[in-house]
Each structure stands twice: as C-alpha cells, then as structure tokens.
Design a protein that fits this description.
It is built from 5 helices and 4 strands. It is an alpha+beta fold.
Length: 187
C-alpha cells in the first residue's frame, strides 16, 4: 500500500508540487483556534467552503481519525513580492489558487484510480471557482467543493514542523514567494 501512496506523491510532483510528503494522519495538528481566526477573513460566511459552512473541528477530527495516511503538499506561488503591487498580487494569488486547485483535483482523482476511493483533498485557500459564492442557494459545483485546510482547524505550521518541513512567515519577504499548502487524506 505504501508503494502506491508513494506513486501518488510522485504524481503530485509531476503536477507541480514542490513538496509532496507522505505522513501518518496522526501527524496532522488540528486546533479550534485556527478556525477562530477565520472569523476575521473576508470569506467567512460568504463562501461555502469556509466557516460556518465547513465541517466543525470536532467532526473533522473524527473523520481524520478514520484515515491512515496523508499526503502533505506545498506549491509555490507565481508572485514575486519584490516586483509586484498588492492589487496585482491578489489577481495572481487567485490564479495560483485555481492552478493549484486543478492540480489537487487531478491528484485526488489519481488516488481514487489507484484504489483509494475515499481519498479527499483539503485545498489551499477558500474556493474561487465562481466569481461570487451564492451561499443562499445550493453550490453550483458541489462535486468540486473542497474545504481549505484552515477551515477544518488544521494548523499547517505545526503540521509542517511535525514533518520537519517549514514555510517561512511572513511569506512576503523581499524576493520571497508565498506558498500554497494542501493535504490529501488517504485511506
């Protein structure tokens, strides 16, 4: 089984991941305070992938406990902080999230086809498939709705440290590139 999961990691690299590390689901750090911080985000209550619409932390902890492995992935943004203004950075970030999300869905599908029918990806950032999420009606793309890692309480900084991986913060240091992190839950 682990050999097949390593194949999925290789596929993640081919799909653009700079990091694709197989780990135990027990290495994922889930904390209520991560979701608490979501209250200050512009997507809070305005995006079906984000709180209060996303699964509650306790429910996610139970689900995570049913998985054995995870694939932690980090993708680099195309933003170069030393040569771009904030308005352009937002547009590039949106494009990066779409690019990475498409790769994540392909990775999830690859895992499904490799014998992991319950593989599920937690995305980098809130959903941006639609230009504006209509939270008063059912999602137009329900089959593509995936939750951001933070929306279910994953502390990605502590999780990466558990795996001897680090993303430096602030990510917008001169000449630096922000990262997009995601996690694939694997049986």
């Amino acid at each position: 089984m682990i050999e097949v999961i390593k194949e999925i990691a290789e596929y993640a690299f081919k799909s653009g991941a700079e990091i694709a590390k197989v780990a135990s689901a027990k290495d994922i750090v889930v904390e209520e305070r991560v979701v608490f911080k979501c209250v200050n985000c512009e997507n809070y209550g305005r995006n079906r992938s984000c709180p209060p619409f996303s699964p509650k932390v306790e429910a996610f902890k139970r689900v995570l406990g049913e998985y054995t492995y995870v694939l932690v992935m980090v993708f680099k943004s195309s933003i170069n902080s030393s040569s771009i203004n904030v308005e352009n950075a937002r547009a590039l970030w949106d494009d990066d999230k779409k690019r990475v999300f498409n790769a994540l869905i392909a990775i999830e599908k690859y895992a499904f086809n490799k014998g992991f029918p319950l593989a599920y990806v937690l995305r980098a950032g809130g959903c941006n498939i639609c230009s504006k999420c209509d939270t008063n009606n059912p999602c137009k793309h329900q089959e593509l709705l995936r939750y951001p890692i933070c929306s279910v309480g994953i502390n990605i900084i502590k999780t990466l440290r558990n795996l001897n991986l680090n993303i430096e913060f602030p990510s917008m240091k001169p000449g630096g590139k922000p990262c997009l992190a995601a996690i694939l839950l694997i049986d």
